[in-house]
Amino acid sequence: xxxxxxxxxxxxxxxxxxxxxxxxxxxxxxxxxxxxxxxxxxxxxxxxxxxxxxxxxxxxxxxxxxxxxxxxxxxxxxxxxxxxxxxxxxxxxxxxxxxxxxxxxxxxxxxxxxxxxxxxxxxxxxxxxxxxxxxxxxxxxxxxxxxxxxxxxxxxxxxxxxxxxxxxxxxxxxxxxxxxxxxxxxxxxxxxxxxxxxxxxxxxxxxxxxxxxxxxxxxxxxxxxxxxxxxxxxxxxxxxxxxxxxxxxxxxxxxxxxxxxxxxxxxxxxxxxxxxxxxxxxxxxxxxxxxxxxxxxxxxxxxxxxxxxxxxxxxxxxxxxxxxxxxxxxxxxxxxxxxxxxxxxxxxxxxxxxxxxxx
Length: 359
What we know:
Methane Monooxygenase Hydroxylase, Chain G, domain 1; seven-stranded mixed β-sheet; rod-shaped; Mg/Co-transport_prot_CorA
């Protein structure tokens, strides 16, 4: 299987002279039109509506008696991000982090709210590569705001459960909604890693069956993709550990069991990532061993051929010297005798090598 090497466009880097709290989108994913999906619900009803970034006035103050969920799709409209920050009192440094896709997944909290970033992973089966999407979630009592880089709906399953009143989301608060959103992304990690594992198994078959010559490149590309996964999940494990131990009153006691479950899932996923890394290292070692084995077989054949020709070259060299007095030189059948002797010697050597299982 031939894997395609991936050329990733570099992220935009903020200037060192940028003022802290500046809202500058550093990613490359842009959507045609930034939209905001507003879902308001309680135990008895749910309302869903969509508006674009020009309708900033529709942002409403949160009501703690119900749960408001604003899902912003697209981060390039920094004016919208700033308007959301002013409406809900979000610290400028948090707004800066929302649109900074270069940072590691993290967890922050203050007396007003909780902020967490995470990377959604997608596996492209056609290109055989993993892509990542920066996602930010801000939580205050009665309000959740999620930010996605693209227009793809990462939280479709959560939204469907709320609208159809399935599961526990409608009976719980905004803190449980954050758990559900994180859980939706982490569940997709399992799908991504399952697909990744199937590719590793295919490459392993290629190593054993020698299907193509670029196996070394395939292994190298897979190791690079695995680094992307590891850099996304390892810091998330730390962030979820802190989230599951927070003393912030926004998070109800009943939600901590679910948060601890999320943390345990990331630990399990990291174990899988480490096992895949060991598999790839083993595959690389196996490939190099196969290459060395084939080289040794070639050298063995060349050595045997050279060994067979050593006595033949010796005989030819003796009777090829320009001396007049060589006893057998003038024998009537000397040419045929020499040929017969060399053939017998060659056959004896071949027989010997076969007995020793060198051939």
